[in-house]
Amino acid sequence: MGKITKGGSFGGCVDYVTRRKKDNPDGSSCKEWRLIDCKDVSTIEGRNGIIASFEDNLALNPDLKNPVGHISLNFHANDKDKVDDWIMVEIARKYMEKMGIVDTPYIVVRHLDKDYPHCHIVFSRIDNHAETISDKNDFNRNRKACLDLTKEYGLYISEGKRQTNVNKLRGMEKIRYEIFNAVDAVWNDKSVHTFEQFESRLKAAGVGIEYKYKRGSNELQGLWYTRKGKRFAASKIDRRFSLGNIRKHLANNRPLHPQSQWMYADGSIVPIASYKGVRFSTQQINDYVAGKAIRVDGCQGEMPTVWIKFNLQRMTPGVYSSNPDLAGQAPSQSQNYGARLSNVSVAGTTQPQEGFTNGSALPDDFKLWLNRHPGLTIEEALHRYREEQKAKRRRQGPKLH
Questions:
Q1: What pLDDT, in 10s, does the model give residues 223-276?
Q2: What does the angle CA 140 – CA 246 – CA 6 come to, to the nearest 5 degrees?
Q3: Is pTM beyond 0.90 here?
Q4: DSSP conformation class of 79
Q5: What strand order describes the sheet that includes 230-233?
Q6: How far apart are CA 59 and CA 385, in angstroms?
Q7: Which CATH architecture has domain 163-252?
């Protein structure tokens, strides 16, 4: 089971997971934790070095409200003999990959103060490319990632609603679980992508829907599920099955074209959010979806300025060295889509590919720095920028609280 939190203080989070308050009188750490994995952080100076490493990335986007990512991974007590440090690190790394927590500083700290194995992942939500690691739909992605890894490693699965033997239940509780199983089955059917389909499938399974409106108006506020004359609020069945969550979930199920992941089945174009580190504006996204070419400046790599337009023949985004919409132009299409690409649907879901990304745009101060230092790769520029920021902080001295 994974528990996700976000915050604004790397120092506070690192102090918590490393149990600073329980340090021994001589300043040494207590025996309740140990660092079992880390990346892109300096551990030579202990906690202070780790915190400083995280804050280097914070300098790339100082306006992000909650830059601290904190996830606790908790295993069942039955697995305490299975989950050693090596297995825990391997699972933590796979979990982070499934959650899109990549190319960013992190630490994994194992706690030893409970009967069940568990660890804490602390990471920067501003990655090494100055992009924000998305937290969209992280509740459902977390649940799926934990379940997939539990099955992959043959770990213990505690009994949940899906494992409940409905035949042994009686009365209202039995009806409630019957409704859960029916809604859960439709929820997990990717072919259902409209509310009409959702409601029709439930009706066929013997479950009805009643709508809740705001008092004195036609504004829809929520819904109840009904079966055998009994009615339950959505939250009493499962919080996933609220009206708002269902709408978001069904939007994510919008079917793609059978021959392209960049086009929906109805022929409309799947939106993309950015390309090679450059975040698109709303107008650029709208123009791209309308089939127009959009100009993108400041790209990583050999071509800092490109034009992107959906290629109907190939049914993929086309990257061009000149504007393909200008009359008389014969633009050449680039075949190099880079190393990281993902498209973003109208509902905000992402699909990892290569070249386009859905991260946040580079902060303005880093863009200005890049303009003053042409010819550098993004990795070289980021390294030099971070070193200058650290030197600047050293000159300014510590912050006084």
A1: 999 999 999 999 888 888 888 888 888 877 777 788 887 888 778 888 887 787
A2: 35
A3: no
A4: G
A5: 208-213, 220-227, 230-233
A6: 9
A7: 2-Layer Sandwich (3.30)
